[in-house]
Amino acid sequence: MKILIKKFYLKFFPKKLFYINDQESLKNVFIELEKSKLIAIDTEFDWRNTYFPILSVMQIATEGKIFIIDFLEKLNLEPLKNIMLSKKNKGHISCCKK
After folding, report:
1. What's the domain count of the chain?
2. 52-66 burial code (b ≥16 CB/10 A, e <16)
3. Per-residue burial over 33-44, b = 16 or more CB atoms within 10 Å of its CB, e = otherwise
4. What is the pLDDT of residues 75-95, one digit of tens each?
5. What φ, ψ does residue 76 adopt, rounded to 5°?
6. Which candidate, 6, 19, 46, 97, has a CA 20 to 30 Å from the CA of 58?
């Protein structure tokens, strides 16, 4: 089990970190994700002043990059849906609600 965890960690150890807060930069992230075989995703929601959660930050890791996406900027997620539903990627890992 330790070897598996170590391999997973090394697979996603960041070579580059990117902060994304505009649609044009997000478009480039989608292009990068389409090329990736493995994607890890974590999300953070704002629950402070609302009855329903508002997606505020998404962290997406690929084999060599980590993208921190600021969704409080009202970015369009539609292309991400298509990437997640694609059978081209080998796997997706996402966090559940805490």
Report:
1. 1
2. eeeeeebebbbeebb
3. beebeebbbebe
4. 888 888 787 777 666 555 555
5. -85, 120
6. 6
Q: Residue 67 sits in which domain range?
A: 2-94
42 is written with which tokens?
Answer: 């974590």
What are the residues facing 92 on neighbouring strands?
39
Asked whether the whole model's pTM tops 0.90, one would answer no
Q: Round the CA-based radius of gyration of the chain to a whole number and report it.
A: 14
CA 12 to chain centre: 12
CATH number at residue 64: 3.30.420.10
pLDDT digits (tens, 9 = 90+) for 27-43: 999 888 888 888 888 88
